[in-house]
Amino acid sequence: MDNYPALIVITPLLAALLAGIAAWTEERLSYPIALIGLAVSMFAAFKVLMQVITSGTINYRMAGWAPPMGIEYTIDLLNAMVLLIVASIAFFNLIASYKSVEQETSDRAGSFYAIYLLFVTGLLGVTATGDLFNLYVLIEITSLTSYTMVALGDRDRGPLASLNYIFIGVIGASFYLLGVGYLYLKTGSLNMVDVANILSGLHGSSTILVAFILCMLGIWIKMALFPMHVWLPNAYSYSPVAFARIVAPLMTKVMVYVMIRLMITVFGLDYIFETLNLSEAVVWLATFAIIAGAVMALAQKNLKKMLAYIIVCEIGYMVGGAWMGNQLGMTGAILHILNDALMTFALFLAVGSMVYKLKRVDFIDLKGLFGKMPWTMAGFVLAAFSIIGVPPTCGFFSKWYLILGAFEAGAYHFAAALVISSLICAVLFFKVFEICFFEPMPEGHGHEDSSSHVAIEEAPLSMLIVSGLVSISLVVAGLYSGTIVNTIILPFLQ
Amino acid sequence: MKFLGFIIVCLTGALLLYGTGEFPGWGDPHSPASIHLSNDYIEKAVEQTQVPNLVTAVLADYRGFDTMFETAVVFCAGLACFLLLRDFKEKKERFYRHTPTGVILHVKDSKKVLKTGKEFEHMDKDWVPSDLIIKTICRILIPFIQIYALYVVAHGDFSPGGGFQGGVIFGSSLILLAISYDLKVLVKRVKEKILGIFAAIGVLIYVGIAAICMPMGGNFLDYSKLAPLVPGDPHHIRALGMLGVEIGVGIAVTAVMVIIYINIVSEGRHEEGL
User: Which has the closest alpha carbon to A373: A430, A437, A304?
Assistant: First the structure.
């Protein structure tokens, strides 16, 4: 079977359609269908990663047509890794989210699973493809589904957050498409490798420069790089739990992947760092993103909002690392895609469990939570340590590479911003720990109708198991980060 | 803030103009877009795919993978409309017309449902369509529109046309039914459940045809491997595969058009609306 590359993307799509049919006929089947679809996809992604590690890049031709004529999936070490991350987080989140979906969208759960699967299909397709236009089509699917799911969240604010997200997201996607249009005008091709070959003779062209700027701006808007982040905090904090838990770790990370892919495979690092010499400006932008994200996170009174701003800050890390112009920085950025996906997932799993029990997660709602939900909080603490960058957890190692890269490039401001933001994260999380640990839980949990209120207790087992697994993976990924760098990232960069 | 926006717009405009500096000339036969791949498509497509329509060959075969996801986008739009707009609560007030006399009844009690049929006719609150001319003409036109839509779908691989266009025409014939009569008539004829299932089945036909190629020994979407399954000339198998795919697209687009229309005009209640 050489069809694993196609299966990674096709099984979630097939499962989405079957779940959509089941939603109308036998709704309780939608969940198992979704689960099987994602399990197969995860298995295929694992197989592909193993195959890429042992025997190198896989080229899979859709419909059998040779690349510039047809569409090709080009799976090398980088996207094989990202594919496995996306597929497995989507799968485990689905396990953890069964109860949340029941609670939040019970009357249309089947259709919810269908749209969830389509979202995952989009992310996987964006990651797997080797074709610039195919990438756009799948960004479109990812965006459409995420607008929908944001609007399904908070009854009052979800739709407005979604509307803002649509306006900004559409602008981002159109910028990217316009950039691809400019590229096509000068090269006549859409296949990434083919475009890169033709581009090497066109380095001085103004059209290519504009195409590059447009593509990057579009992707930056989509990944919410400061100051283009305004849609993100509301969209992530007012969306349903099941969606917040997958979009927060994956969406921005996949967009960072797309940025790195465009930089390395399509435009080429020589063009960016030598012909255009843009490194310094973008690293400054990333520095501002880090500081701004951290400071805005300080101002928040709601746990979800705070985490959303921390994501804005983390995006700064990855963009800065990728644009540092040296191997260490790029290694840090790629390693951080993996690590940040894991730790954001762990954080949002914990927050999801809290929302499931508490409904609201303003800081005042969290009082005394350590006593009530000890296991959930344990996972939260570990993830928080990883975000701060405490050594055995994985967050430390990618930050280490990023700081080394910054020193090598002479970008001391970036290194300083990184350290400062880590300190701010420490302050933020210890503030939350303090509220959860020392302040007693108020009678009736702050709600007026305490009689109808269910007693706060530990989250459902399904959420706890996934949370535990992910927390362990944080430490494992940390301990094995040397192996990951040596088997995946360094061979890819050479 | 407005000033800042103005500056950004000006800068973007300047950037776009700067980029046009090195564009190939208008209609230049030697521009990269005209020489890099186009010649290959023009010279080989008919021979390789046995489809006389080059646009279809590129759309449904060379780049059929994109089109599959475009169909998924359409499905996604229908699903989004259902998820966000559908409101299962029934309206409290109802209006009926007593057909023989034309008297209009206003029923405020939601439990009291009059039986509609020969004597009473359901009607919308702010929409009073009982124009005989419009109804009759639309009734005559709708079947022709639908047959035309089927032709457009079936001609996808031979002449201009295809699943998207045919689906839109078929969907609009159903919407015309809702406009000329009222929404109830359409909702009664075409059940919501059927629409929901057909939207998914349409895309499933596409993905299914593409996926069957894998166990038959080809890559995903490689129609040529379907030859053993279909009787007839194996040279035309790619054209047949494209036709099947177009039919799937047509079904999905039709269903999604109607889903979007019904949900938007009735604010998700499926009772009354334009």
Answer: A437
Which of A50-59, B235-244, B263-272 has the highest mean predicted lDDT (pLDDT)?
A50-59
C-alpha distances out from residue A280 to A213, A287, A406, B15, Å: 15, 10, 11, 21
User: How would you label B29-46 residue by residue, b for 16+ Cβ within 10 Å and e otherwise?
Assistant: eebbeeebbbeebeeebe
**Rounded CA separation B193/B188 (Å):** 11
Distance from CA of B240 to the nearest CA of A (A): 15
- Closest residue of chain A to B195, computed from CA coordinates: A24
- The torsion angle over the Cα atoms of residues A187, A269, A230 and A358, rounded to 10 degrees, is 120
Give the 3-state secondary structure of residue B222. coil
Q: CB–CB of B220 and A138 under 8 A?
A: no
Cα A419 to the center of its chain, rounded Å? 22
Helices (H), A153-240: 158-187, 192-199, 206-223, 232-237
Q: What is the 3-state secondary structure (H, E, C) of A331-370?
A: HHHHHHHHHHHHHHHHHHHHHHHHHHHHCCCEHHHHCCHH
Q: Which residue of B has its CA nearest to A207?
A: B19
3-state secondary structure of A65: coil
Distance from C-alpha of B33 to C-alpha of B71, rounded to nearest angstrom: 26
| Regions in chain A scoring below 70 on pLDDT | 1, 441-456
| E strands, chain B, in order | 94-98, 103-107, 120-123
Measured in angstroms, the CA of B1 and the nearest CA of chain A are apart by 14
Q: How far apart are CA B76 and CA B65, in angstroms?
A: 17
Q: How far apart are the first and last CA of chain A?
A: 29
What does residue A141 show for φ and ψ, rounded to 5 degrees?
Answer: -65, -45
For residues A259 and A216, the answer to whether their CB atoms sit within 8 Å is: yes
**Among A229-238, B126-135, B142-151, the range of highest mean pLDDT:** B142-151
Percent of chain B with pLDDT over 70: 97
HSE-up (13 A, CA, CB side) for residue B95: 15
The CA-atom distances, in angstroms, between A46 and each of A9, A79, A85, A412 are 13, 12, 9, 38
Residue type at position A194: D
The residue among A402 and B156 whose pLDDT is bigger is: A402
Q: Do B219 and A62 touch (CB under 8 A)?
A: yes
- The pLDDT tens digits for A384-415 are 999 998 888 899 999 999 999 999 998 899 99
A-B CB pairs within 8 A amount to 173
Chain B contacts of A182, Cβ < 8 Å?
A: 19
- Give A-chain residues touching B35 at CB under 8 angstroms: 188
Q: What is the value of pTM for the model shown?
A: 0.94
CB A37 within 8 A of CB A15: yes
Query: Quick one: pLDDT at residue A67?
Result: 83
Nearest to B18 among A111, A112, A210 (CB): A210
Q: What is the mean pLDDT of residues B48-59?
A: 86
Is the pLDDT higher at B143 or at B230?
Answer: B143
Cβ partners under 8 Å of residue B117, min gap 6: none
Q: Do the strands B94-98 and A72-75 form a parallel or antiparallel pair, or are they unpaired? A: unpaired
The pLDDT assigned to A427 comes to: 93
Tell me if A290 sits within 8 A of A418, measured CB to CB: yes
B220–A144 CB contact, under 8 Å: no
Q: Write down the pLDDT at residue B270.
A: 79
Backbone φ, ψ for residue B180 (5° rounding)? -75, -35
User: Residue ranges of the domains in chain B?
Assistant: 1-26, 37-87+130-265
